[in-house]
Amino acid sequence: MFRVLLISILLALVSGLTVNATVPVPSLKPGVESAATAVRTPGRSPGARYFEGRTPFPVLKPKAMVKPARKPVIVIDPGHGGTDPGAIGARGTYEKNITTSAANELAARLRKSGRYKVIVTRRNDSYVDHDDRLRIARMGQADLFISIHADSAGNKKVRGASVYTLADRAKGRSKRIVNNQNWILDVDLSEQSDPVGDILVDLAQRKTESQSDAFAKILLKELRGKTVLVANSHRRAGYYVLLAPDVPAVLLELGFLSNAQDEKLLRTKAHRTKILSAVERAIDAYMAQN
Question: What is the C-alpha to C-alpha distance for residues 221 and 283, in angstroms, rounded to an integer?
Fold first, then answer.
């Protein structure tokens, strides 16, 4: 008896819709909703589910375009060059030649890895102004700036590599550079009030100092055991190439050309490769943390 009653109710509901009633079918086109309207037969009441207006089918959104990941930018700066030979070793080795070879070798390693965009401030024996070296790094939106040098000292027994980051006393010079170039962190400082500009520069300097120190720590860890390190191997100085307030930067001294043993080693590609392999590993480790 119950089944007969149920069938009677279903037949009544079906007969309440005309043959022209629209069946709600979801649209397969992204971003479009389907509309369904049931047509009421005159004199009859709507069924249990009477659709009026738009049917709430979910909108299928088109897949967003996937932007390619930006490769970190590494700027390598061979110290000296051209009319500026830098330090001169006991055997007549020019620092500019050692730094050029090391920079190009490091650039080749990083490019081969495919992980980075690499910029070298000079590729041959030419001189590049310090201002231009900084400008290259900043315009290239460098994630890391590595200036390569070879040291010299009056005491010819001193040998070993070291890493420099910017000293606190040089931060005032860093601000003057920003004032001359009038921009920082993609912000035109000419459009900011002086107090706001000062705050932006200070914030950038603090972040850059922290990042520079973090990389220096990783770099020295990788260098340890691969080459001799001087005592107090993480040093601070006001070198001009470290002054960019918005680019993490270190200056790597490969060794002392004034020391006969260091000079001999730095003239060999095999020894430079040991050092540069450590630099590459340090870059990888640093970028993995950022």
Answer: 12
Residue 78 · residue 103 · CB < 8 Å: yes
36-57: pLDDT as tens digits:
444 444 444 444 433 344 444 4
pLDDT computed for residue 147 by the predictor: 98
Pairing of strands 187-188, 183-184: antiparallel
Q: Where are the domains of the chain?
A: 1-66, 73-288
Q: Is the dihedral of CA 276, 278, 283, 288 positive or negative?
A: positive
| pLDDT tens for each residue of 160-207 | 999 999 998 877 766 566 655 555 555 554 555 556 656 766 777 889
Cα–Cα distance measured from residue 40 to residue 16, given in angstroms and rounded to the nearest whole number: 7
Q: What is the pLDDT of residue 170?
A: 78
Inform me whether the pLDDT recorded for 264 exceeds 90: yes
What is the C-alpha to C-alpha distance for residues 224 and 278, in angstroms, rounded to an integer? 9
Measured CA angle at 39 (ends 38, 43), to 5 deg? 130
Distance CA 127, CA 152 (A): 20
What mean pLDDT comes out for the span 123-135?
Answer: 93
Q: What CATH fold (topology level) applies to the domain 73-288?
A: Aminopeptidase (3.40.630)
pLDDT band at 64 (very low <50, low <70, confident <90, very high): low
String of DSSP letters for 181-200: HTEETTEEGGGS-HHHHHHH
- Between CA 60 and CA 29 the distance in angstroms is 7
- What is the C-alpha to C-alpha distance for residues 247 and 250, in angstroms, rounded to an integer? 10
CA–CA distance, 205 with 218 (Å, rounded to integer): 20
* Exposed/middle/buried for residue 175 (C-beta within 10 Å: 0-12, 13-18, 19+): middle
- Share of the chain residues as helix, strand and coil, in percent rounded to the nearest 5: 40, 20, 40
